[in-house]
Design goal:
Layout: H1 3-12, H2 19-31, E1 35-36, E2 41-45, H3 48-62, E3 67-71, E4 74-79, H4 83-90, H5 111-125, E5 126-128, E6 137-141, H6 144-156, E7 162-166, E8 169-174, H7 177-187, H8 190-240, H9 248-259, H10 265-271, H11 278-294
Antiparallel strand pairs: 1-2, 2-4, 3-4, 5-6, 6-8, 7-8
Length: 297
């Protein structure tokens, strides 16, 4: 199963005690239903636990059950009949005239109800990617006004949401790992939070290790390139005038480099037995390069 599926399973197991939170969670689930109309509410989910949670809440709040049909892709739950009027009234959903959905400030007045509402919204309309692959969170709806209202609602609760249109859906999303962790924590998916953080820490450690290795390889490459240039200069001097005509210190540095072409400056300085410091040896090698550059090819 996917990471998102597992998160929804965990959210289904969160115990909802307060009646106000049951209303808020059911409100979130129904507000992000695939269809809301005067004659029908239709919810589609691939997760049987989500379907069962919806029916449990519907019975606890309204004393009704959604008709549930199993399909090839999951489960379709529908609610029809006279009970819809009381559902719409209780949940502040106006289906008379042009449908214009928005998040009710009455139902989400308490902080506990905010968390319950977000939980329900995600269970029906949400998706979160596996953090091993990328950081992406979204909740989608078919209704523009709802997406706009929900985006503002998320922002008011320190969740940096943005909106985008994808085919016939309006998607409220964010990609910040901290925001995803906060959402999962608020909605009660504590196990998912820890799993998310573990993956994030591992990725950061791997990135750090890669940066260290890349830096090390870059330094090795620089050392090799510099050594090749120095060896070429010394060979040129040996060919043109001979190393014996150099000052003793320069001749010593030249032979030391020729005998140890793969060594770094620090390693060469250690081989000097205290004769030259690293900086002193560097100056000697630089002087050899200057001499070689003045010799005719």
């Amino acid at each position: 199963m996917s990471f998102s599926f597992d998160v929804k399973c965990e959210l289904c197991a969160v115990e909802v005690k307060n009646s106000c939170c049951k209303v808020a969670m059911l409100y979130g689930m129904l507000l992000f239903a695939q269809h809301i109309g005067k004659d029908e509410i239709r919810v589609v989910t691939e997760n049987v636990l989500v379907a069962n949670s919806l029916n449990t809440l519907a019975y606890d709040v309204f004393g009704v059950y959604f008709a549930m049909e199993e399909t090839a892709n999951g489960y379709t739950l529908t609610l029809k009949g006279d009970v819809l009027d009381s559902v719409f009234d209780r949940l502040y959903i106006d289906v008379n005239g042009k449908l214009s959905l928005a998040v009710s400030s009455v139902i989400t007045e308490k902080s506990c109800c905010v968390n319950a509402f977000l939980r329900g919204a995600f269970m029906v309309g949400g998706y979160v990617s596996n953090p091993e692959n990328r950081y992406h969170f979204e909740i989608s709806t078919s209704y523009y006004t709802l997406a706009k209202s929900f985006c503002g609602f998320m922002r008011r609760h320190d969740l940096p949401a943005r909106t985008v249109v994808r085919k016939s859906s309006y998607v409220v999303y964010f990609k910040e790992s901290e925001a995803i962790e906060r959402f999962l924590y608020l909605t009660g998916a504590k196990t998912a939070v820890f799993a998310f953080m573990d993956v994030k820490i591992q990725k950061e450690m791997n990135n750090y290790s890669n940066r260290v290795n890349n830096t090390r390889m870059h330094n090795i490459e620089k050392t090799i390139n510099k050594s090749v240039e120095q060896v070429k200069s010394i060979n040129k001097i040996a060919e043109k005038i001979g190393l014996d005509f150099l000052e003793p210190d320069l001749a010593f540095a030249a032979r030391l480099r020729l005998e140890n072409p793969d060594k770094s400056l620090n390693e060469l300085a250690k081989l000097c037995g205290g004769k030259f410091s690293r900086s002193g040896l560097n100056r000697k090698l630089a002087r050899l390069s200057e001499i070689a550059s003045k010799l005719e090819d």
